[in-house]
Design a protein that fits this description.
With 275 residues, the protein is an all-alpha fold. Helix content is 82%, strand content 0%. The longest helix is centred in the middle third of the chain and has 34 residues. The radius of gyration is 21 Å and the shape is elongated.
Length: 275
Amino acid sequence: MNWRTIRAIAQKDLYEARQNKSVWLPIMIVPLVFILILPAVILIMAGNPEIAASMNSDPETAKMITLLPAFMQSMIAGLNTAQSMVVLFLGYFFAPFFLILPIMFATVIASESFAGERERKTIEALLYTPASDAELFLGKVMASFVPAILITWASFLGYILVLNGAGYPIMGRLWFPMTSWYPMIFWMSPALSLLGVAATVLISSKMQTFMGAYQTSASLVVLVIALMVGQFTGVLALSPLVGMLVGLVLWLVDVLLTVLAVKSFNRSKILASEV
């Protein structure tokens, strides 16, 4: 295994991804929405006495609180209405939204890396290089997986700064991150990122264009939406233990999909399909 070759392939793919506006625009815009716009809306609402009073008197709010897991009920015990709004929405209900980032980043870069080569008619030249199938595959996976994780972690750091900085006048202390976020960011996010890459490799073998591969693989976001619905309805709470268990399941699925993706990435088959 030649790691210099693998790194060169990854660098080439990242350079080409930067030239595609359809790749870097969502990578720039989506974190801004998650880190700045949505938190700002919640903080403004929480800081408005009329909205806070309305939330406090709403029977649906009381019903929602009864559905919370024990660790969240103990966390908001003793907080005023504004503080409870911030913790509930930005610290608890908003958590699954963050899991969209690793899937989205991984699939958009992987779609450009695999299907984008076919769309640009550059894949044949790449497949004739002296690199082995394993080196080609690993280089392309690194070009998608590593940036997706780094951008997700950078977004998480930005979220911490915004919530503790802009939320300090309401909370009166540095309160974020909560313990439930650690397994989600450092255990589930890498698993979701690899899931996105592996699924995109399998899908790209059937797709001829970047957008076709991306739109199909982006359907994985349905998994995150299911977690969001589970949190809001009280069916599933992303506690630290649940986060570790869900992450373990995702990693097991990753192993299966990655094995299938490696088998599907065969240069002779790809070349034959291009003829």
